[in-house]
Amino acid sequence: MTAPVLEASFALNVALLLMLVVLAAAVVWTRSLLAAILLMSVYSLVSATWLMVMDAPDVAFTEAVVGAGISTIVALGAILLTRGEAVRVSWKRQVVPGLLAGLVGGLLIYAMSGLPDFGDPASPANSHVGRAYLETAKRDIGAPNVVTAVLGSYRGFDTLGETVVILAACIGVALMLGFGPRATLAPPAGAPGDHHVVLRVTAKMLVPLIILFALYVQFHGDLGAGGGFQAGVIAAVAIILHALVFGLRETTAAIPPQAARAVAALGVVVYAGVGIVCIVNGGGFLDYDHLLTPQIEAMIPAGLLGDPDKPHHWGQYFGILAIELGVLMTVSATMITIFYGFAGRTIDAIAAELRR
Amino acid sequence: MADALFWIGGGLIVAGAMLSVLGAAGVLRFPDVYTRIHAASLTDTGGATLMLLGMGLLGPFGLITLKLLLVWAFIMLTSPAAANALANAAFGSGHRPRIGNFQIMGEDKATDAAPESAGKERA
């Protein structure tokens, strides 16, 4: 029974990888930037499928949400500000970049021969740290999803760094494009016609459902694929959908750009604050075992959320919950701020066009 | 019983995949924007319905069935709305349906003059 299953997954791998090659070639080939963006979105979706085949649901989830979802929206916002066609470059100016790309690609293909086989139990990644995590995560952390245990607890400091990087991206984009629509600017003339009624009704139904799904992803991260990064992007997508359908003015009335950027910074504060609380209570930075003082821990009823006989890692539990909340805040608010930046610029450009 | 469910479920998934391939052929071969949207959206919802039905028969009955049902509801809600928005945008930017009998399956060029305000209206 195992042999046919293996062959099927091999065929699936080959098919998906071939699709990736074709899509990558098409992205390079096409002159239309709009087509390139949509092809990149399809590329991300196919690679998410491929990662799913490789049994990496957490990575696949992130790839689908970030690669196929939000980066497509941001890229579309970017080409609204520029033009939709790639500039033609003479072949002479393509020689050196082409040679360079070929050289690096060749080196990568050469380096591939030194990689361990897929799923090789003796590979360095699987034999030292990886195996230690797998063996101790259940005992140390108590979270059923080892990926969450590694990202949130064992390597919580790395994840704090990632969250800060996202905040830095938020600040960088905001410095280049502005924080959002200018309050002084009049909206583009002309009332929106009523021919978007289907979109409005659908979006009105979908926005709360998408936010509910984001919360599910957020709180399910302990048990399965998910967590603050994916949930933050999904929540931001709900807000962006609202802005696309109902207009930026309506959305900024609900979530002002100032609130978005404040929440983005607050998320990092929440994350780092958990670390500080751990220090104050006598542990190391982000050492969740010291997050709760013994007095507080004694107040939690024994049978709550699990087996009353086994000691529950309440510090780890609440620590991961709190830092995931910080990640959710920073990621979603950053995505919203970036979108506001692009959309505000677009409104400026359209208004300037209309005035001319 | 389980064997029969396996074959029925597998058959439904293959049928859904075939429908999606037919939709892709329609997108490539149909003459204008609107017929292409028609081909894409109908086969999209239909193919997804068949595939999700097949998956529901293959998987264990329970929470997974409920999740597949939710996915189906989401697709039935979003896919037609997306097709509608696409057709709306095509109409707003000056594409008009080709009406009548024509032999040449040329590429769809929006020769009909786009209204002056079309570009601004979209934004």
Number of helices of chain A: 14
Number of helices of chain B: 4
Give the averaged pLDDT of chain B, no decimals: 82
Biggest beta sheet summary of chain B: none
* Ends distance of chain A: 71 Å
Gross morphology of chain A is: globular
The domain count of chain A comes to: 2
Euclidean distance between termini CA atoms of chain B: 56 Å
Structural class of chain B: mainly alpha
Largest interface: A-B, 16 and 12 residues
Given the C-alpha coordinates, what overall shape of chain B results? Answer: elongated
Weakly predicted, low-confidence segments of chain B: 107-123
Would you count the extended β strands of chain B for me?
Answer: 0
What kind of sheet is the major sheet of chain A? Answer: none
Mean pLDDT, all residues of chain A: 84
The Rg value of chain B, from CA coordinates, equals 19 Å
Q: Spell out the helices and strands of chain B N to C.
A: HHHH
What proportion strand of chain A? Answer: under 5%
Helix content of chain B: over 70%
Total beta strands of chain A? 0
Structural class of chain A: mainly alpha
Walk me through what this model shows:
Chain A contains 14 helices and no strands. Chain A has 356 residues and is mainly α. Chain A folds into two domains: 1-115, Four Helix Bundle (Hemerythrin (Met), subunit A); 127-356, no CATH class. Chain A is globular and about 70 Å long. The mean pLDDT of chain A is 84. With 123 residues, chain B is mostly helical. The longest helix of chain B is centred in the middle third of the chain and has 30 residues, at 63-92. The N and C termini of chain B lie far apart (56 Å). Chains A and B meet through helix 9 and helix 14 of A and helix 3 of B.
Summarize the structure.
The complex is a heterodimer of chains A (356) and B (123). Chain A has helices at residues 2-29, 33-53, 57-81, 95-112, 124-127, 129-140, 146-154, 156-177, 197-220, 228-246, 248-254, 257-280, 294-299, 314-355.
